[in-house]
Amino acid sequence: MNLFTHHFLSSKLHLKHQSIAIRAAYLMADNVLLGGDLFNAVGIQELLSSFHPITALKFMAEDPKCDPAMRHEYLETMDVLKMTAKVKHKNPQQIIAQKRLENWVIQAWKDYSEGMIKANKSTGVAQIKVLMEKGENVFYAPTSDRPEEKQEEYCECSKMLQFNLQEDDILPEQSCFMLPAEFMVKLSSERKDKVDKDDCNKIQFTYFNLNRLTPAELIAVKAQLRATAKPFCEAMDKWNAMLAEEPESGGFKWFKGLKKNALDNVWYMENVKPAAEALQEAIDCNEILSSIPLATGNNLQVYVHLGTCPTNNIWKFFDSYGLIPEETKLVLEQKEARYFAGKRKPYFAISYSVSTEHTVEQNSSDEAATPVKKSISFD
Question: Which of 136, 152, 210, 274 has the most CB atoms less than 10 A away?
């Protein structure tokens, strides 16, 4: 089972919720794929340290929270550096002046970026890099700022949204989305008093706050859960493939497919549900997971819901949060993509026992809560 997350830093989704979703996906799935530009959040320290002084000035000036006077100073300094860069043969005074300006920018950027790194660390996303470096089957499925242009080491956004990575071990019929808490909030508000027995809450896993675990603890927990997570993944893959063979949701074709749907439900009841219950029992018995409240003083419970819906419903959610670029929308309107979007697929989504902005934060240190392949090519 492959679980995909999708995020753009420019979107309205909160990285804290994405971090929880990624960690839950990591503990359950065979592979985790990070879509959009999550690579910038995971590798933020390397990203910010690579900025050219002019790029850094532009970035700071465009910050909506930037003081107007400082914005003016940043822009003026940027213009001066651009002009001096055009001078081919500088005299000693010009070289010294340029160096002083660059040193000032470097210090200003260091102070600014340290605040960004600290804020990013509190979300827990940056620690995912450790899992990637240790070969823990967490990969990038990255989208560039030209989302539908075929580029080396980047994936077209439309292909990622259809799980079409053209990798032998990342098959669409074995792939699902792991969605952040905003999805369940939106689903609940839209359903209101409607009763939909199929779209949500087929299964609900319960964890304590996974953002309180260090990478070392996450790796240990995954190893301990693997014996029960693997049969669950295998049952999910089979069920996912069976759903892929159903007619599109709605209309006469779907009505004719009710018999097939009944067979899928039998497989779910006889295989997926028991495997999920065994996995939950292993989660409940895991010493590291069960010690989180006592060790951290954080009693937040994380619920991981499993449901099914047409992929188009998930795309609508992504679009409502600014996660589908305009170029990608044009591709998703094509016949093949619309056919894929009409099919029901399983999805996972998280929610919490309470609504809060603070209790999902990462530990301020990397100390343990208890004593105790980097990327895919798209050629």
Answer: 210
Residue 272: what are its φ and ψ, rounded to 5°? -65, -50
Give percent of the chain above pLDDT 70: 85
Query: What tokens were used for 255?
Result: 């009505």
Strand order in the sheet with 203-208: 138-142, 31-36, 2-7, 175-179, 344-352, 301-310, 203-208
Tokens standing for residue 86? 């055009």
Task: Tell me if 271 sits within 8 A of 253, measured CB to CB.
Answer: no
Q: What is the dihedral of CA 313, 319, 325, 326, to 10 degrees?
A: 90
pTM of the model: 0.81
Name every residue whose Cβ is closer than 8 Å to that of residue 135 and which is 6 or more positions away in sequence: 373
Given the DSSP bridges, would you call strands 301-310 and 344-352 parallel, antiparallel or unpaired? Answer: antiparallel
* Residues near 236 by beta carbon (within 8 Å), at least 6 away in sequence: 1, 176, 272, 275, 346
203-208/31-36 β-pairing: unpaired
State the pLDDT confidence band at 137, using cuts at 50, 70 and 90: very high
High-pLDDT (> 90) share of the chain, %: 51
Amino acid at 311: T
- Cβ–Cβ < 8 Å for 184, 199: no
Closest by alpha carbon to 328, among 152, 140, 178, 145?
A: 145
Residue 10 DSSP class = T
Q: Is the pLDDT of residue 369 over 60?
A: no
Farthest CA pair distance, the chain: 83
Q: Are 265 and 214 in contact (CB under 8 A)?
A: no
